[in-house]
Amino acid sequence: MPVNWREHIVSTPDVLRGKPRIKGTRIPVSLILGYLASNNTVEQIIDEFPDIAKEQIAACLDYCSLD
User: Fold this and answer.
1) What is the pLDDT of residues 12-54, one digit of tens each?
2) For the purposes of burial, counting CB atoms within 10 Å of the CB of 20, is it exposed (0-12), middle (13-18) or buried (19 or more)?
3) What φ, ψ does residue 9 adopt, rounded to 5°?
4) Which sequence spans correspond to the domains of the chain?
5) Rounded Cα distance, 44 and 57, in Å
6) Can you give the pLDDT at residue 2?
7) Closest by alpha carbon to 28, among 39, 44, 47, 12?
């Protein structure tokens, strides 16, 4: 599913010391990527973090694939 990560990922110096995070939350991209690396499904991640959506998880993947 193509997602524009810029619509879902933000980084501001006053929140999480500027670490990239899901917009509107304090959930860092690195945390979601860690869950995915541990073979958690998108559904399991949403169960753990009900405030995020599939598109936001896809945006985390798109963000990390930047060259």
Assistant:
1) 999 999 999 999 999 999 999 999 999 999 999 999 999 999 9
2) middle
3) -115, 130
4) 5-64
5) 11
6) 73
7) 12
Q: What is the pLDDT of residue 1?
A: 59
- Give the list of residues 6+ apart from residue 11 with CB closer than 8 angstroms, or none: 18, 19, 20, 21
Query: What is the C-alpha separation between 3 and 8, in angstroms, rounded?
Result: 9
Q: How many residues does the chain have?
A: 67
For residue 54, what is the DSSP state? Answer: H
> Is the CATH code 1.10.10.10 the one for domain 5-64?
yes
pTM: 0.91
54 contact partners, CB below 8 Å, separation of at least 6:
1, 42, 46
Question: What's 15's DSSP letter?
Answer: S
